[in-house]
Amino acid sequence: MTLTIADEIRERALAELAGAGSRAELDEWAIRYLGRERGELSRLLKTIPTLAPAERKPFGESINAIKKALEAAQGVRAAEVRSQELGQRLLEDRVDVTLPARGTEPGHEHLVYRARDEMIETFRLLGFDVAEGPELEDEWHNFSALNTPEDHPSRDAQDTFYLQGGGLLRTQTSSVQIRYMEHHQPPIRIVAPGRVYRPDTITPRHYPLFHQIEGLLVDENVTFGDLKGTLSAFARRTFGQSRKVRFRPSFFPFTEPSAEMDVECIFCGGSGCRVCSHSGWIEMGGCGMVDPSVLTNVGIDPERYTGFAFGMGIDRTAMIRYQVPDIRLLWENDLRFLRQF
Ligand SMILES: [Zn+2]
Prior knowledge:
Order of helices and strands: HHHHHEEHEHEEHEEEHEHHH
CATH topology of the largest domain: BirA Bifunctional Protein, domain 2
Structural class: alpha+beta
Helix content: 40-55%
CATH superfamily of the largest domain: Bira Bifunctional Protein, Domain 2
Radius of gyration: 42 Å
Mean pLDDT: 90
Number of domains: 2
Strand content: 15-25%
Number of helices: 12
CATH class of the largest domain: Alpha Beta
Bound molecules: zinc ion
Number of strands: 9
């Protein structure tokens, strides 16, 4: 009679197992039938002491056989449920490849940074390393160490952004010359590209923020011929072998002698136009032999070493290189404009 109850439990357990559709339901099923304390089979085993001695062994064996059969069935069903759940998840996560993609707006390398990288590459080929310095400067590195007198007009608040509480926005990358020479002895051969700031009225050729690349070479026996050769090689590689370059005498506090380098206007070929102010030439920047007092200021012996320095506008170079007639176009960041290049 008890055996019939065991058989009935087995049938019921198998039927419920077939209906268990999730791992949670499988777990509940296992506790209900196979649980060590309160499972139905355990409860049957606990009735053994109430049976006649001869019935106890065969009863126990039959319960254990049912237990093994249920455990085997549980393993099979668990595998089926796992497979169903996986299939369901794949179905839910399926990507519809026929849906139209979300549009993306790719950016564009900025012309100024493209020009900067090209200039750096040219100077690398000429043997220069790249150095950097801070945009927030002090008067020593931006002016005094560069031999700029206290009353020099470039120090005026009309030409320099001074910060409340001291310091200034560097007006030239020449400050990097000083910072570099403070920590390096010759031979020195660096270019320093970066942003500089001057309170300018915005016009087709002027903007209060612009980019310069500074060059500095200090070694024994450096001459003005080395300076002209270096900048001419740069101009030929950047603007074409046939482009004319000229050097005009000029004055800067930190170089002696000093010069301005001009490159033939590529818009008009030298005949004169609005971009070149009808001169036929576009100013590239200033240059000259490093003033001995600047070398002294940073602890380099001017009796033994000479050097040259130059500073060029990167924005200006980008305008010439890519024939952009108005500097404001560079900073409006209109993708329709940038994509033309
Ligand atoms: Zn021109």
